[in-house]
Amino acid sequence: MKKARLFFQLIGVGVLAISLSIASCTKEGPMGPAGADGTDGKDGVDGNSTCLACHGQEIKTTIEAQFSQSVHVSGLNAVDYAGGRSYCARCHSHQGYVEFAETGAVSGNITNPTAWECATCHSLHETMEAGDYALRLNGAVNLLTDNTVVVDEGNNNTCLNCHQSRRNGEYYDKYTEAQTFTREFTEDDIAVYQTAAFGPAGSATLNATSDTLTVVFDVPTTHVYISSTHAGPHPSSQGNTWIGIGGYTTSEGTIFSGHSDGCVKCHMGEASGHTFKPELDNCTSCHGEKNVYMDAIAGRVEAIGEALEAIHAIHKEDGEYHPMYASITREQFQAFWNFMILLEDRSNGAHNPTYTEALLDQAEALLGL
Q1: At what angle do helices 292-310 and 330-345 cross, to 10 degrees?
Q2: Nearest alpha-carbon partner for 100 in 149, 130, 139
Q3: DSSP characters for 146-211?
Q4: Lower Cβ count inside 10 Å, N or C end of the chain?
Q5: What's the superkingdom here (predicted)?
Q6: Pairing relation of β-strands 213-219 and 223-226?
Q7: What separation in angstroms does the CA of 323 have from each of 24, 242, 339?
């Protein structure tokens, strides 16, 4: 009996000890040491609420669905063609963009390039505060066509890194002495180039079997040679239009400041989000249901295109304009260049109305329209 009584006494002591321990855990302990400046430190941002604002399952699913509709992830931005080429990869593949963001260059060709994904633009947060989207490239941008021109437009910088011209008109208008270039054309190109713009002393000769056309392009110093069917500033050069630089005008262009945070505001609205498709409601809320101005700009661009086609500087096929190999006067070339800027910009003036009109005015004057 004594042993049993002792056993239950020990159990009681143990229960009491545990109770006292639990009670002591519910009480606030002693105050810790003071902060570096002698005061209590500031509470940090609540991790859950901050992270879930973007990383919650519902919004994550929405963003992924939107992004799946974007050209950036669909592969239409020439991943297979340009994503692996070292010069092009910085914008045409996930691997190239990340390497450029981390090192400032793409060291060599990429073997298996892939399209963009979330981690292409987004990396690790720096502050964990609102507005820190962990963008890999959101600092100031040096333009490819002129490294001395630096543009710093906040979150727009992420877009400007890729959506800018790769070359200016001087890339083609560079000869100080007369030049001659000879090219051969076959199949469907024969009909296109029989009446080519081959310059004052140029010629087009069809061989005896009529399956090869040899064109000699004469390029005196008054002319410019369009040396590629991809001639122009480069597709998706909207940033230069927005900045107001790269074309031939009689007046200096300026950044279009009509809308703050323009790229993001217009291309990442509530409905479009990560599709990056411009939302009509963003325009019509101020400009009305039908934008007569943009229709008028489109008409002027088309008229310039028709004039350039008439002198064989460009060729229209399946409703789309394509540059042609040609020797044309410097004035005609400058009009051609302005046309290509507006054609690749694809906004009919929305990205910079003032600069767009300046490019159009100059092109029309040079072509006598």
Answers
A1: 140
A2: 139
A3: -TT-EE--TTHHHHHTTSS-S--GGGTS--SS-EEEEEEE-THHHHHHTT--B-TT-EEEE-TTSS
A4: N
A5: Bacteria
A6: unpaired
A7: 82, 23, 11
**Residue 253 in contact with residue 244, Cβ under 8 Å?**
yes
Q: In which band, very low, low, confident or very high, does the pLDDT at 173 lie, cut at 50, 70 and 90?
A: very high
- Of the candidates 291, 278, 272, 292, the residue with the CA atom closest to the CA atom of residue 346: 278
Using the structure block, give the residue that is written with the tokens 């940090």.
44
DSSP state of 135: B
Would you give the distance in Å from CA 155 to the centre of its chain?
12
Per residue in 174-190, pLDDT tens?
Answer: 999 999 999 999 999 99
CA dist 155 and 349 (Å) reads 22
Task: Give the span between the Cα atoms of 66 and 53, in whole angstroms.
Answer: 17
CB-count exposure of residue 345 (10 Å: 0-12, 13-18, 19+): buried
Question: 72 CB contacts (<8 Å, ≥6 apart)?
Answer: 115, 116, 120, 276
CA–CA separation, 161 and 141 (whole Å): 6
Higher pLDDT, 277 or 46: 277
Instruction: Indicate whether 75 pLDDT > 70.
Output: no
For the chain, the maximum distance between any two Cα atoms, rounded to a whole number of angstroms, is 128
CA angle 10, 15, 16 (to 5 degrees): 95
